[in-house]
Amino acid sequence: MKHILIVDDNLTNLEQISIQIEDLYDVSLAKSGAQAVQICGKAAPDLILLDIEMPEMDGFATLTKLRENVAHRSIPVIFLTASHDVKTELKALKAGAADFIGKPVEREILIHRIETHLALVAAKRDVDAQVRALEDAIITSFADIIEHRNAKSFGGSRRSARIVMALADELLAADAFPGQLNPATADMMTRAAPLHDIGKIGISDFILLKPTLLNDEEFGVMKTHTAIGAQILRRVFQEIPRGAGFQDFAVTMALSHHERWDGKGYPDGLSGDDIPFCARVMAVADVFDALLDSRTYKEPMGFSEAALVIASGRGTVFDPRVVDAFKAAQPRLSTETEGKPGT
Question: The pTM is what?
């Protein structure tokens, strides 16, 4: 049974609306915006019927507060109000309300609107699930291609994703990127991580698999893999529906994971906070993963030695916040990566 939250400061209104729908839904009641936010924090409803005219925190302020929590942004909210003017209705829709119903509420209309919006949410979830399945298939296929081209053992790209996940967890705990990093964006970064080197598909085997260090000209060619990767992903993603943001993270991380905190990176020479935060996280994960891995021109580095390299880049190569997160995550990373190249 779907869970409907009714919010109204008038107890009579609460009771009347509840009676109309309680035989069809699991109903919760809140007599203030603050109480509604509290209830949603414990058990998010499937839909909210929200009165506009309330003291202290009106319907608009309540909706704004609810939307601060990313987990509540997809909950459809139907505004209820005795005010029937066009300006109020337009303001409600612009605020993010799914619908607007005037009081007094007719039962058949109310149930029809509720069912319509519950069906829309269910349809959107089905589409999102299909898009995610497509994205995951792309990730798996491209990750295998990257590893095959780069002579890496299969699973290495997944290791970079686990490193990103560990860093994101520590950054979340430290609230290092408020307004940018949350559980949803952390998940998107983790899923996008295996695609960061997809541009190496466009680099010749002579350069990619050269058994010695690259000369300046060859390194110039190698650096183009960032722009190539972003271009490839943009073209691929044009052919599938837009996801919830993962696609943007994948393109950004492919393009900018070699930017440096001090501005000496590539391809755009970005510095500091001008570098997208997801690319700053990927930069640490990419270098650490590369140090642990064997390449045609080098043997793998031990965990402790590789960790020292990351620490030495704090404030020059890497964002200090991400290096601090790396330090905090070292016990976890040691368990997941040391002695297990490609796993």
Answer: 0.71
